[in-house]
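Hi there,

I know you've been waiting on this one. I reran it after we fixed the sequence typo, so this is the corrected version. Both the input and the resulting structure follow.
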Amino acid sequence: MDNSRLFLFAALVFVGMLMWQQWQIDYGPRPDPGSEVESGSDGVVAEQDAAVDDLPDLADSISPSTTTTTETLPSASPEQQLITVDTDVIRALIDTRGGVLRSLKLKKYPTSLEQPDDWLELVHSAKDSVYIVQSGLRNKEEKAPTHYSVYEAEQSAYELADGQDELVVSMRWSQDDVDVIKSYHFRRGDYLIDLRHRVENRSQQEWLGSEYRQIQRSRPLETSRLLYTYTGSVYYNEITKYEKVDFDDMEDSQLKLESDGGWIAMIHHYFLSAWIPGQDEKNLIYTIANTKRNPSTYTIGMRSANRVVAAGGNTEFVSQLFVGPKIVKRLEEISPGLELTVDYGVLTFLSKPLYWLLAWYHSFVGNWGVAIILLTLTIKAVFYKLSETSYRSMAKMRKVSPRLKTLKERYGDDRQKMNQAMMELYKTEKINPMGGCLPILVQIPVFIALYWALLESVDLRQAPFIFWIKDLSVMDPFYVLPIVMGISMVIQQRLNPPPPDPIQAKIMMALPFVFTIFFAFFPSGLVLYWVVNNVLSIAQQWVITRRIEASAT
């Protein structure tokens, strides 16, 4: 099998894989939350005292008066205000109504290279798009602040000063001799935020309540079918491991799942937001879909077990919130399994080491494009012997192609005699017809794994290579790399034995043009890999072909 056939086969496998993933999303089996609620003792049961059923639903938190852009967000009441928080890596808006994180911009990730000061707003509240982070406390007597309750803030603006490593934003809520101090703790150079609810019970009665944390968003306004990446909610614990709950799942049924430790998150391409509780804490994971509003919203949340605070006593609920880019190394440090939000799919076992090697090369050269070239050289070296076997087989096939053509002319349409003569020729010349196919097929999973490694790597977002390529995560703006790749495919075809079938020959001639168009819409980082791989393959195949031809003279 020559490299043109490899491209065709790889494309069919790849497109088939994407179609299978989309079919699973649209029509695949859904988890049955009802069976989980009844299952009992394996960490998948929501006991009545830990469930959300016994309290009114608070998922729908944005009223029409507050569903506007963050720049023009009005106060819903005289007491309500927005607190501005500035660190070296984020700018956030915290609404004193509920202490809700209503906006968060990532200063190191602009929306485009042309507008470096227009930072990506991961958390936002707009008329047609909602993505907010909520938390609060619950108890039956309503002596606890939910994300509807209005807090009193000490000040309206906070900024991390030079030499300061932590910034604490505190708000206070009081009712019936119960005080709650809600505080966010921001750190320099970090997207991980600590959240604390300190409950001080000054009343003469016990206070019984729990903490909930949730992420609410609407469906994305735009999606790419060509380069599909998962957008939706996920959760993780040591029993169920990593599970996705997409928006359709939420509409079909409400998830209720008791979990020890773990985390919940909303993820999309390159970025995520996640709530991470204490890993020794028991929580109820739940989802809620609200399709009666516009836009429809989808919520994934965690609610802790009830905690008793004696009269005159106090307690503190502590959680962590991550809102930022999917940097694998940092996610591995925060919580077990959080790095799985960098979704490499079924070939994670290949994609992860490929990304690790790519990042290792980048640590030396400082350029992701150069790192991709070095990674390509490494992969080519690993598969050198397999490629050599394939190219030797193709060179021998090329050498006997005139004799195959003669056999075809001799036997015409008598396929049985033609096949017998071909097998005899292969036996005489010691040619294995599959020798050029199998070694190359082994490399196809590596191509697919590298595709996901490059597609999911936030490091390549807006990462420059050379000259006209300013962003390796998007397609080549001038289509130079796809055209070079198409030319390299033509050269490879010249080195390969011509197909005996005229129809097949015409199809093979069209492949370079088809794949040039196909790869024109792929991230330039992935096309760069194939260009370098093709150039190296051409050099190796040319040398081997010349040796075989020289030995025949």
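Quick highlight: The domain at 46-343 is CATH 2.70.98.90 (Beta-galactosidase; Chain A, domain 5).

Best,
R. S.
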